[in-house]
Specification:
- InterPro entries: ATPase_inhibitor_mt.
- This is ATPase inhibitor, mitochondrial.
- The protein is an all-alpha fold.
- The protein is 60% helix and 0% strand.
- It is rod-shaped and about 80 Å long.
Length: 81
């Protein structure tokens, strides 16, 4: 069975590639973080647009039900119009 060796501080991509252990990271790490952040924002934007569309459909359905209730009430003579 092979054992895994994990990199330690100072390895490329570890976020500690600068002297004195500064957590600034290298260019690859920064680019990767930016790409991940962009992906997350795009996914959230897509979900929000889907929710907005679903809300729009629900509002239309409620308006249709409201109109139907008004129509039934008028047919039964419940309102004095």
């Amino acid at each position: 069975m092979a054992s895994r060796c994990y990199s330690s501080e100072g390895s490329t991509g570890s976020g500690f590639s600068r002297p004195a252990g500064e957590a600034a990271g290298d260019a690859f790490t920064k680019r990767e973080k930016a790409a991940e952040d962009f992906y997350v924002r795009q996914q959230e934007k897509t979900k929000l647009l889907q929710l907005k569309e679903k809300l729009k459909q629900q509002r239309k359905h409620l308006d249709d039900l409201d109109a139907h209730i008004d129509e039934l009430t008028k047919e039964q003579g419940g309102e004095k119009n």
